[in-house]
Amino acid sequence: MNSVDLTPTIENHEIQASIKQLSNLQKRINKDIEDMDTSMKLLNATTARRIKAIKEEIRETQEEYHTRIKKTENRSTKRIWKIQNQYNRKITRTSKRYNRRLLRLNRNQTKLKKTLKHLKREAKRCESKLQSSRRRKWKQAEAQWTHKLKKTKKKLTTITREIKTNIKRIRHIENAQKRELTKQKIKCLSRLESANKTFRDLQGSKEAEIIMKRQEIATLEDVTRYITRSMQQMVQKKKASIIEFEKITMPRGKRTRRLVYTPFYLVRYEKGEKKRYLLYPPSVIGDMGILTKMKGALGATKVKALLQSRSEPIATFLNQLPAHLEKKPMLEKTVTETGIRNSILLKKQLRVGVKKGLKELENQHWISRNELQTISKILYIYSSSMDRQIKTMVIPENEQLRCLAL
Description:
This protein is mainly alpha-helical. It has helices at residues 12-136, 139-195, 197-247, 288-291, 295-298, 302-306, 312-318, 321-327, 329-341, 348-363, 369-384, 397-404, and strands at 265-271, 274-280, 283-285, 307-309. The strands form 2 sheets. The chain has a two-stranded antiparallel ribbon. Strands 3-4 form a two-stranded antiparallel sheet. The model is unreliable at 1-9, 290-300 and 386-406 (pLDDT under 50).
């Protein structure tokens, strides 16, 4: 079968030029992202400086107006006190003048009421005498009491009219007094308002300036927030473009295979014929400052909380090993023998490091002194066994669990 070479429709230099253009475009996008991040930081910093300056202006305005308002308040207080005293005297004089007139009228009213009461009794007496004279048929006495009764009734009419007139006068004077006092109080309030105007104007100017400056701060914050949000959206779009660039590329295949060694720790617990495994993938020590706050709640998971996995995918891959050990006895046997030969507790240099680390854990209050003594006892048991043959030395499970739950 013959083979035929096909000439490519796109020249190599064209492909290289396109790749270079895409690479330059990607660099420009990355540069734009960096520039926008820098611009956002600069914008936020500039806004923060301006807001700080405005707050300082507000403080200076408050201090300036405080001094001016204090002086104006003192002057206004003196003028107000003077005006109040002046009008208090006027109101007192007016009240006394009207009260004197009302007193005369009220006295007259009392006198008229007494006279009216006397005339009513006299009219009743005359009527009684008149009736008595008529029964006895005393013509002269009847005429006399009839004349006297008419005269008394005429006086009653006059007194009643005078009482009504007096009541009208009293009401008129009382209304006049109220109008006069109200007029004087209004004048007093008007003069007080005028005397206090400068003080109130200063307070209003102070509040207006402060409100304007606070509105300026709010406007700056809103504008900065809007611009920053817009720039963040642009950054997200450019990052999405970078991801699209990565999607259109083809990953280069592996040219060679390499054996990668991944260190990890495998612990086996035994009780009779029962056994279980606990695996620690490659990890780093966590932040002691944060974890120390959680000591009381950790309990048997202190070690897991202390260690942080370097890579979650590697940890997930290695955590499959205990399940394979249960399914494959030969693999379990090989791993067990290798683990015993390479136990860290059978190497003096590593035991020294373990002891040192345990002492530091005790100083940090991760373990108690009794727990430290128990673990040291276990280290001593292992250190006394220097037989490097494949042989398992079983530690009582209660001591193991107490040790490894720290």
